[in-house]
Amino acid sequence: MEKPKFTPSALTSSRGALHMAQILVCVVTFVVGYIWGHPSHTYWIYSMVVWGLCPVISLVITIVEMFLIHKLILVFCMDWDDFTTGMAMMSSLCMFSCTVICANFYICWKCIWGWMITILSAVCCVLYCVEMFKDKCDATRSATYVAALPGFIKILQAFVGCIILISLIGYVGKPALLWCIVAYAIPLPLTLLIIITNILTKLKKCLPFNIDCFSMIFLFISVLLYVSAAILWPIYSFRGNPRPKDCPGNSCVWSIQFVVAFMTYVNLGLYIIDLVFTCCGICGFKRSE
């Protein structure tokens, strides 16, 4: 077993340079956002968390690879290549969503800070997309779960679920919409749990139950929950509530409720695809025995 040792090549390689660029630009973006001090809307809080968390993940990955700790991790618990590719995918999606949020909510012709934060976020997104495509095109890197189609579908489910939760609005005093929040909230942590369990291969083997069987049951329940939300959210959000004539996309409650409805159907489709592929055992999806 190879012992941890310092390897400067982890910093001087193209991969290391890309990680350094990600960390630098993300930190600058976070600092600019902090100085700007925009009101604490859920979209803004989400963006600040993403700009702060992604460089921390990149820094941890860089340190681990710099001291060859990932070789020990590979032996004991998980596929490091698969994990890092998955993190690049998730970071790319999160940075893309932050860029869209900033462009829609915080940019105007005279908003210098808004333009600056949007451009910086877009640069962050490009850097993480470059890493994702480099990893996916590298034939020497393994793709056991997260970097393969089953894991990528799970990442998309978690990502869309997060966007739904930070967009929830106009549900006070409406029991049907409160049920929708429950329907959105239940699948998200379980999806993340399944992702983590499949990454940590040693943990997966130690579980007292069949994770594939659990995933099948979870997917069926998630589809039912999202079907109920897909019916109830549009009815109780838009019935007797047509789009106002003056409804700018960046400050209209109706528009944000529409985002929730649209993302509900997107995630419902993802869970149905996941369930069908898992039941059929195709495209790398594992059917429970």
TrEMBL record:
It is a multi-pass membrane protein. InterPro entries: Marvel, MYADM-like. The chain crosses the membrane at residues 20-37, 43-68, 88-107, 113-133, 145-170, 176-201, 213-236, 256-285. Residues 145-283 form the MARVEL domain. GO terms for cellular component: membrane. Keywords: Membrane, Repeat, Transmembrane, Transmembrane helix. The keyword Signal does not apply. It is found in: Membrane. Its main location: membrane. The keyword Transmembrane applies. It comes from the Eukaryota. Belongs to the MAL family. This is Myeloid-associated differentiation marker-like protein 2. It comes from Anabarilius grahami (Kanglang fish). The lineage of its organism: Eukaryota, Metazoa, Chordata, Craniata, Vertebrata.
